[in-house]
Design brief:
It contains six helices and two strands; from the N terminus they run αααααββα. It is mainly alpha-helical. The protein has two domains: about 1-100, no CATH class; about 100-135. A hairpin with a 5-residue loop joins strand 1 (about 90-95) and strand 2 (about 100). Helix 2 (about 10-25) runs antiparallel to helix 3 and helix 3 (about 30-50) packs antiparallel against helix 4. The longest helix is centred in the C-terminal third of the chain and has 32 residues, at about 100-135. The chain is elongated and about 80 Å long. The chain starts with a helix and ends in a 12-residue tail after the last helix.
């Protein structure tokens, strides 16, 4: 995004103005306010504070949110679509406001899968040992013939 702004000689705020003008989104729409606020924050960080946005995780979230707004309204200014937002943003909002980190969920799932595999292998080993022992700890089933 930063490269594109530079290539087109735009700032975050001038790009915001272009988006509002070309998107068809009503000026009174809350998304316009949010997009403007994010654009202003990003512009102040780069121009006034002179920080490298590429080094700031918070700036990345602001840029992604700004992009998500543009994407949601693209081609449908009266009916934005937010499906897939968690993939662009990198996290999923929950119904009750909890933050759910997809990397943490993936890690948890991988650990549960490992535990499940260990339990399965242990069960198979017990069953195999039991089959070798024969019924009630007697001679192995193969030797009883």
């Amino acid at each position: 995004m930063l490269r594109e702004l530079r290539r087109n000689s735009k700032t975050f705020m001038s790009a915001h103005s272009d988006w509002v003008k070309n998107s068809g989104v009503q000026h009174s729409d809350r998304a316009v306010h949010e997009h403007r606020t994010l654009s202003k924050i990003l512009e102040l960080l780069t121009c006034c504070d002179q920080v490298a946005l590429t080094n700031l995780a918070g700036a990345e979230v602001a840029v992604k949110r700004r992009m998500l707004i543009e994407q949601a309204y693209q081609g449908r200014p009266d009916a934005p679509r937010w499906d897939g937002a968690e993939y662009l943003m990198g996290y999923k909002d929950s119904e009750d406001g909890r933050y759910i980190d997809p990397e943490a969920v993936k890690y948890q799932a991988s650990k549960l899968k490992e535990d499940s595999q260990i339990m399965k292998e242990s069960r198979l080993k017990r069953e195999e040992d039991a089959a070798k022992q024969g019924p009630k700890g007697g001679a192995p089933a193969a030797e009883k013939k």
